[in-house]
Fold these 3 entries.
Entry 1:
Amino acid sequence: MTTVWIYTDTSKQVGDPDHLKVFASEDAAQAWFRDNDPEGVAFAYEVIGSQ
């Protein structure tokens, strides 16, 4: 099972390139949050069709 972490910036409109951020790991998400949005939260989602 492969999992990604997804962050939604609710201040952006759907379709805006910065509306969603997809991270390959929780560590990558946490590193981005430290520099960009310390109050932000990402949610884990299973990638459908991954091995």
Entry 2:
Amino acid sequence: MKAWLSATLVLACVLGAGEAMAQRTKITVYTAFENDELAPAKASIEKAVPEAEVVWVRDSTGVITARMLAEKDNPRADVVMGLAATSIIMFEKAGMLMEYKPKGIAELKPLFLDSKEPYTWTGQDAYLGVMCFNTVEAAKIGVKTPTSWHDLLNPALRGKIVMPHPASSGTGYLMVAGWLQSMGEEAGWKFMDGLHENIAAYLHSGSAPCVQAARGERVVGLALDTRGAAEKTRGAPIEVIVPKEGVGWELEAGAVLKTTKHPEIAKKIADWMTTKEANQVYAKLYAIVARPDVPSTPPNYPTNAESGMIKNDLTWMSDNRERILAEWSRRFDSKSAPKK
């Protein structure tokens, strides 16, 4: 009798779990999160919103942005997150996003909030473009540690620098937009003309340039800030440098699509984005997150990084993206690495 009762209880639990699983709603989330971030974020979301089953569609910033704009009249995503705010502002202007203020936004740093009404998106984390400088390889060619962007114009660095392609990498675009804003457009393009002479290739990743510098394949990799800190922590002979003129930066942000068929669940996922638990997920890969009560100081992260963030106009970056990328491609696309 006890054995029968135990078996019945086990079967009931299994059937109950199966029924709960069957009741979960698939929510399609477009993202440019790093691959390492996907599993922890999915687990955290589904714990906070148990009726949701997160289905990621993940690619680089440029690819996700182009895909969402191409699908404008027939959107397939319910939610977008972990994507450059400058891309999300484009979706906002195209009328693709739902007006919604997630619970908890009052607890976030003001920098991470949509500054215009109607409110449609919320920032999650910030990332910067820095120099990864291989001191061992630099010593071989007699190049000193740079302190300014203009130090990268040294003829000894010809063919020794790699950076992200701005059309496919959000990190690449924030660097280009940062130079144009901080130097002025005429001087910014002139600087990039000189830098191009020393570029070996424009890579389709925000992290890959630093990885190449860390391996000694290049002397300088212009790349994502946290990737630089991670490579140095692994023992690479690199310095992670925030030049004295300051660095460009961008936010990753999230929003709900106006056309989602599951608005209440999608809103709950947007609420999750502002939570301490969500910010702890972001903080595993990003040093600067939206919540001030979630500290994140990775080993070997440059102490002057946050203070080195330039005055940055995200709306300007979004409004001028197509123009800037067209001009950049006209000038520099000849050194773009093949896409895999």
Entry 3:
Amino acid sequence: MIYTEKEVIEIGKNYIKQEINQAKRLYSSIDISFVATITSLLECKGKVIVSGVGKSGHIGKKIAATLASTGTPAFFIHPTEALHGDLGMIGQEDVVIMISNSGNSHELQKIQTLMEMKKITTIALTGNLNSPLARSCDIALDINTNQEACPLGLAPTSSTTNTLLLGDSLALTVMTLRQFDKHDFALSHPAGALGSRLITRIEHLIEEKHQQAFCLPDTELQDAIAIMCQTGLGLIAVIDNSKHVLGVFTDGDLRRAFAKGCCHRVKMHTLVQSHPILISASSLCTEALALMLRHGVTAIPAIDDNSCFTGVINQHTIHRAGIC
């Protein structure tokens, strides 16, 4: 059978609409059981273990990952592996979430029996509140679907979507109540762009060339130029013998000095910009970028807790680290 483009689009939209309708059922079903689940997760002193078979297992992995990245220590355990030794990973202070649309998973029922013996809190995410799993768990949450979007009514579709929505809602509600913020999030995602922005400090990027971008007040202009060429940061700091920054000399200052016909033997203390903009080396790189933008510069000296020069940081170095 040949379908037109319009017919294909309508078929696709129809399945999305069906899943949205089932999601609306889930929205209407959030009740006191949800509150009890949130309370259990907030009071959990151990880890949250998520388990499920088949498509429910795939959704379970995502739920566990979302919990872990939003401040709730969690991991996924496969029911079969659990019954062959991995149950030893579950402790008395843990909470176990078991996912089964039918609530008749034999593997999960066996796990639930053992959890009950160990007095470990269990939560069922299921589409059948009258199922053996739902009745035996401490808390049962209804994923609330009355039909799958699959035209055969066989492939888990609406049920897995609702399970995912419910899992996300649990994780984000706990995250909100814990006041888990973007700085906490960055600690779980240090390799990402957000993590780089929120945890990378100037001192992390200071290398040898940044440390060498300085001269003394009596340094001659020709020698200062050599330092500027060697370091290539667009700025050098002029420091005293105690490493305190007296001023800065930039590429722009160099052009202006040549325009005035300055001798290459002139001392730097006669050319230096006094009262320079400085930043602590322990500051975030994002703070340095904001400071540079505010003052219209591309590089600034960084100092330590004793106000001593540690290096010059510039926009290029920060951007190269993936921070913008």
